[in-house]
């Protein structure tokens, strides 16, 4: 890997580890300092490696430099605080003398604990995802703004407010007590689920799919499965769901980045390894006695990985959607259900159900209606595709819809 590619790659993989470990060492209230030290470490790497060449073990070099920078900061801070705020002397002396643990075990534990800290229920879901992208995934502010279809100032303010809130709440970098884990996991899983959906239904950067966001969501969920205290059925169900969806990534968009509908996908491009992983985690998800929405969505995603078109397949998907909507209603799930309904009971019934949803601000709604009307009433199909074209946000979506209109 070339030098200009290596540092951005390491920033994505190592920044989160350095910040997590430093935060665990000095406390979440000093997260800004931890981020500054991590960023400054990469700046030093950029300057030094350009002159002296890349060290033999770049990651270890980063850890060593970050550790020294943190120790220097703590020593300076200790002197300052001892003179001005004597009552804090003992706390800072203890921190500066305590060795920073950059062992693989502590790096792993720190990231897992940071996940629970940034997904604390005291901050909004949007802020949780933003913090997760920034601190746990190493995304830049501009990338996060792009993912949220926002601007850097808004994201900076949102993250600043969220961090201030977490400081006020005195959130610690630690796993919750065992009796609290089930409850706190809900928020963590919601954040991971939303992060995956940000990538899977992306409207940012003119892309219909952002695999990088999806991969990060899968990585975070994998960390939960690998820990004995967070390896719960609902966690495995979410990981299974994401593996099934990810298995169809390559078939879901063409070379121009345009979205390809399910029935038009090349099934030979579906990733068998990810389907097998999805099945493995789904089996592990069935060990409990509770069914979460992730179980139902994973089961729906499983049936979508079955290549043979049968009545049983679409009947099962339809029934699973019915259960999902009873458990937790969402307009998007209801819209997706109408596609399964068209496959199970025919287009006419699906059109009646879809039009009841009246999602007139959603281009997926009009795109589906356009598809359902195609071959039944092409004029209505065209009208719906035109409405979808007006609402679509990405160039690739607009291009795909124009092709639908041209083919009528």
What is the structure about, briefly put?
The protein is mainly alpha-helical. The protein has helices at 3-26, 31-52, 58-84, 89-97, 104-118, 125-136, 141-147, 152-168, 178-200, 211-226, 233-246, 249-252, 272-285, 293-304, 311-327, 331-345, 347-357, 363-373, 378-391, 395-407.
Notes on the protein architecture:
It is a single chain. The protein is mainly alpha-helical and 408 residues long. The protein is 73% helix and 0% strand. The chain is built from 20 helices and no strands. α6 (125-136) crosses α8 (152-168), α9 runs antiparallel to α10 and α9 runs parallel beside α11.
Structural class: mainly alpha
- β-strand amount: under 5%
Distance between the termini: 48 Å
Q: Treating each run of at least 4 consecutive H or I residues as one helix, how many helices?
A: 20
The helix-strand sequence is HHHHHHHHHHHHHHHHHHHH
Shape: globular
Average per-residue pLDDT, rounded, comes to 88
Main sheet makeup? none
Number of strands: 0
Unreliably modeled segments:
none
Oligomer: single chain
Radius of gyration: 24 Å
Considering DSSP H and I runs of 4 or more, what fraction of the residues is helical?
over 70%
């Amino acid at each position: 890997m070339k030098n200009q590619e290596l540092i951005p790659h390491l920033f994505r993989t190592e920044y989160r580890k350095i910040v997590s470990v430093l935060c665990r060492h000095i406390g979440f209230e000093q997260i800004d300092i931890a981020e500054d030290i991590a960023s400054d470490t990469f700046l030093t790497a950029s300057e030094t490696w350009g002159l002296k060449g890349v060290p033999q073990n770049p990651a270890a070099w980063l850890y060593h430099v970050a550790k020294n920078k943190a120790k220097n900061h703590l020593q300076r801070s200790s002197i300052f605080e001892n003179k001005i705020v004597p009552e804090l002397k003992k706390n800072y002396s203890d921190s500066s003398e305590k060795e920073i643990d950059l062992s693989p075990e502590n790096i792993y534990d720190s990231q897992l604990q940071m996940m629970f800290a940034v997904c604390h229920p005291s901050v909004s879901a949007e802020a949780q995802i933003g913090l997760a992208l920034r601190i746990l995934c190493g995304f830049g502010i501009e990338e996060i703004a792009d993912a949220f279809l926002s601007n850097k100032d808004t994201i900076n303010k949102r993250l600043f407010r969220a961090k201030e809130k977490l400081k006020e709440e005195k959130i610690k970098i630690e796993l919750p007590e065992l009796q609290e884990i089930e409850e706190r996991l809900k928020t963590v899983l919601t954040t991971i689920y939303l992060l995956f959906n940000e990538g899977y239904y992306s409207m940012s950067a003119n892309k219909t799919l952002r695999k990088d966001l999806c991969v990060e969501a899968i990585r975070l969920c994998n960390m939960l499965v690998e820990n004995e205290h967070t390896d719960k059925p609902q966690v495995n169900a979410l990981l299974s769901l994401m593996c099934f969806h990810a298995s169809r990534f390559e078939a879901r968009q063409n070379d121009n980045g345009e979205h390809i509908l399910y029935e038009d996908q090349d099934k030979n491009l579906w990733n068998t390894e990810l389907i097998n992983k999805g099945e493995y985690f789904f089996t592990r998800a069935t060990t409990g006695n509770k069914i979460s929405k992730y179980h139902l969505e994973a089961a729906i995603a499983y049936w979508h990985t079955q290549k043979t078109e049968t009545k049983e397949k679409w009947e099962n998907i339809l029934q699973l959607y019915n259960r999902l909507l009873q458990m937790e209603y969402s307009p998007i799930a209801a819209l997706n259900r109408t596609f399964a309904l068209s496959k199970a009971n025919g287009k006419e019934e699906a059109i009646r159900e879809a039009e009841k949803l009246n999602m007139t601000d959603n281009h997926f709604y009009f795109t589906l209606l356009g598809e359902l009307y195609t071959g039944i009433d092409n004029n209505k199909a065209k009208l719906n595709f035109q409405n979808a074209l007006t609402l679509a946000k990405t160039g690739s979506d607009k291009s795909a819809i124009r092709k639908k209109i041209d083919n009528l």
